[in-house]
Specification:
Largest sheet: 5 strands, parallel
CATH class of one domain: Mainly Alpha
Structural class: alpha/beta
Helix content: 40-55%
CATH architecture of one domain: Orthogonal Bundle
Shape: globular
CATH superfamily of one domain: Isoleucyl-tRNA Synthetase, Domain 1
Radius of gyration: 28 Å
Number of helices: 19
Distance between the termini: 33 Å
Number of strands: 14
Strand content: 5-15%
RNA sequence: GCCCCCGUAGCUCAGUGGACAGAGCGACUGCCUUCUAAGCAGUGGGUCGCAGGUUCGAAUCCUGCCGGGGGCGCCA
């Protein structure tokens, strides 16, 4: 027997059914009763606010309703519940029995690799566009945040039954590519870079490579194309090093050459949302909530960056008619959100087809000092050097640890430490420690893991650990729906902490008592699976030895 | 001026209506003949930016203000 299980939701279902009984009808409107871990152990294992929510509906006092709910729940849960207390303004505090803990542990163990997978997944298709850094230079450390985030969201959704597609969009057209080509040409001739050119040393390296390939400095356009090829191949290598692989690389130039920009323009014209003014072609984006209308074709006739982006979104929407688009943008692009949403609507697609997350900035901190970041000046920490410095696992963990709308201060001194101070190693260490126990058990011919096969008491540390693991499906669902992988980081750390406490209190191999060793080995196995799964969702390795 | 994000412990941050507000780091104190001390336990530390409002209940929702960051091009 295996498959997704969700013990907390099962318990919640029991509460809801009792509430519906008492109310004499289904729960529409009103709130859904909570079922949560109370702040203090003295408040039991789980608590619910059901009686407080019911009070205004039934027009009776919360404590009175709580009494009735408690007796109904006791009946429904029978030997799974030890006792129910009524506290505070009308909370029902549930104290679960050893039988429930044993049953839950057995259920979790039976889930195998499906442990933590929410039984009711999210479904659908999400096309995630992320990183999409310009192909005029190597990826910066900040791109590592986008890469880690987009990939982790994709992994989370895949785990919940959603098809995730990863795309990278290259703005390989226009003025910046010209400046890039001119910068390479200047370096070939040994000259200083032109105004607004790219000053980084990598441009010198590219120039040297292209000279070696026999290229001349007289065709900046050709140089920019050749330079782009080198840059993009480097970007792919860097992302691979982080464990991020894209399904599709879209190119603005390719879209342009295929006539997609023109088609997008025709589409918008057909829908009646464009007009001419001062020689330029505009999108009436204000009609869809944007601050001002936006230029699609300049008065010279060249397309703007924005038109390319409109064409790209149209292309995505048509390639995957079932998909929701998800754009991961940097904080410096937030002004872009309303216009791109407007364009999607102007093309006749529903506004629920596009979702956008804004990533706040990344500061790399060393010795308490923030490193400067300027791509054009060539002063920045590259993602490649960051990965080389602290490794892909620490890079991902530190980038993912914070919610996307807060700035990340990546402390290199901390990230470099291979000690308990470093949260990555803390979690990985727990996984390695369990692996070591299981190795020892195998070597010493310990009992086969069996979560439910004993009648003794369950240790408080075991209870804590089982409860934590039982929360995983809800945690995964929440993180997936809210596109919030940082919750998984916090969850993984909490699970590791619970395991270390269990390790302190409970001997596993050679434990005294009938079936105790077998049940603890099973709990170790379930914990290891939990850590492996959560680390996997973050794209971080789960080592067997450290 | 307008728009977006943030303001919670010394530092970095969790916590999008529930019970006396949490974690990691830093500081201080203990614990390795015992399954990995990359670990555990304990101590100290906060007017949740300020002021109103909604609610039985607000760090959380609403309004105003203060402080920090980012953005407001026929650049990308």
């Amino acid at each position: 027997m295996s498959g997704p299980v969700d013990p907390v939701t099962e318990l919640r279902a029991a509460v809801i059914s009792c509430v519906e009984d008492l109310r004499g009808g289904s729960l529409e409107g009103g709130g859904v009763p909570s079922l949560e871990r109370p702040p203090k152990a003295e408040f039991g294992d789980y608590s619910t606010n059901a009686a407080m929510l019911l009070a205004p509906v039934l027009d009776r006092s919360p404590r009175e309703i709580a009494e009735e709910l408690a007796s109904k729940l006791s009946e429904t849960l029978s030997d799974r519940i030890e006792r129910i207390e009524i506290a505070g303004p009308g909370f029902l505090n549930l104290f679960m029995s050893d039988a429930w803990y044993r049953g839950t542990a057995a259920e979790l163990a039976a889930a195998g690799e499906d442990l933590g997978r929410p039984p009711q997944g999210v479904g659908g298709t999400l096309l995630i566009e992320f990183v999409s850094a310009n192909p005029t230079g190597p990826l910066t450390a900040a791109a590592g945040r986008h890469a880690s985030y987009g990939d982790a969201v994709a992994r989370l959704l895949e785990f919940t039954g959603t098809r995730a597609i990863r795309e990278y969009y290259m703005n390989d057209m226009g003025a910046q590519m010209e400046r890039f080509g001119l910068s390479i040409a200047a370096r070939m001739k040994g000259e200083g870079v032109p105004e607004d050119g790219y000053e980084g040393d990598y441009v010198v390296e590219i120039a040297e490579r292209l000279v070696a390939d026999g290229m001349g400095a007289d065709d900046p356009n050709a140089l920019s194309l050749a330079g782009e090829e080198i840059i993009v191949s480097g970007i792919k290598d860097t992302l691979s090093g982080l464990g991020v692989e894209f399904d599709h690389w879209s190119s603005e130039r390719a879209l342009h050459d295929a006539g997609s920009l023109q088609r997008a323009l025709d589409d918008l014209a057909e829908h009646g949302h464009i007009y001419e003014k001062e020689g330029a072609t505009w999108l009436r984006s204000t009609e869809f909530g944007d601050d001002k209308d936006r230029v699609l074709l300049r008065s010279g006739g060249e397309p703007t960056y924005f038109l390319g982006d409109v064409a790209y979104h149209r292309d995505k929407l048509e390639r995957y008619p079932e998909a929701t688009l998800f754009d991961v943008l940097g904080a410096d692009h937030h002004g872009y959100v309303s216009r791109i949403k407007a364009s999607v609507e102007a093309l006749g697609f529903g506004d629920d087809r596009l979702e956008i997350s804004i990533m706040q900035l990344v500061n790399v901190v060393e010795g308490g000092e923030k490193a400067q970041m300027s791509k054009r000046k060539g002063e920045f920490v590259t993602l490649e050097s960051l990965i080389e410095d602290i490794g892909p696992d620490a890079t991902r963990f530190f980038m993912l640890q914070r919610s996307n709308d807060t700035t990340v201060d990546l402390d290199l001194d901390l990230a470099r430490q291979t000690s308990s101070d470093n949260p990555v190693y803390y979690v990985q260490y727990a996984h390695a420690r369990i692996s070591s126990i299981l190795r020892k058990a195998a070597a010493e011919g310990a009992a086969a893991p069996d979560a439910g096969g004993f009648e003794g008491g369950v240790d408080p540390s075991e209870r804590q650990l089982i409860k934590r693991i039982a929360e995983l499906p809800a945690e995964v669902l929440e993180a997936a729906e809210r596109r919030a992988p940082h919750r998984i980081c916090a969850y993984a750390m909490a699970t590791a902490a619970d395991f270390h406490a269990f390790y302190r209190d409970c001997q596993v191999v050679g434990a005294e008592g009938d079936g105790v060793e077998a049940s603890r080995l099973a709990l170790c196995g379930v914990t290891r699976q939990t850590l492996a799964t959560t680390l996997g969702l973050l794209g971080i390795s789960a080592p067997e030895r450290m």
